[in-house]
Specification:
Elements (H helix, E strand, L loop, with lengths): L1 E8 L5 E8 L6 E10 L8 E3 L2 E5 L5 E5 L1 E2 L18 E2 L4 E6 L2 E6 L3 E3 L2 E2 L9 E10 L6 E8 L6 E2 L4 E8 L11 E2 L3 E5 L1
Parallel strand pairs: 3-16, 14-17
Antiparallel strand pairs: 1-2, 3-10, 3-11, 4-5, 5-13, 6-9, 6-13, 7-8, 9-10, 12-15, 13-14, 16-18
Amino acid sequence: EGDDVVTLTVNDNDTKTLSGNVVLRRTAAKISFIISKFGLADDNDEVEINGKKYTPNYEGIRVIFDNGVQKSTIAPDVVPLTDTTSIYFDTEEISMQPTDGHAPCTLSMPFYSYPSDWSVTEENDAYILLVVPWKAVDEDIYKPYHYKVPINPDKDKLERNIHYKISVQISMLGTLDPDQAVVVEPSYVIFD
């Protein structure tokens, strides 16, 4: 939002200059993501499962944004999108950066998506797939564990011009199968 000069072109020969307040609104939703903490204790990042302790590999943490929407119209209520083929996208894996080698880990840049509504069918629900490498303290190899982080679970939709700031705490192992990822309940703040 701000003041600027706007040039309005009616045709090639007729140009008008107007000045005034131009209100800018995002047509997309903005999604920021942070892992605020690993483990249950304040002094370490380990999780314990059946008496076995596991530690995360911070350098290998990756996120994937699934079922983002890449097509929309300016006023979908007035002019709905008629071609809905291939409107959904999944991002490539993106690394997360730890702070001083430990949590919190912050996504370096946000995700963006046009509006999406999956309240009728969960087939195209937008979510973040989190991949955290964990290894048992007595083992040498990290294994990728998967977590599904829902976006806006209270409304089952992404709305335009809204910033979803999502935070999770990971205190358990996920699954090795990305299709069966453990659902992690996020805390989130929604800004407009």
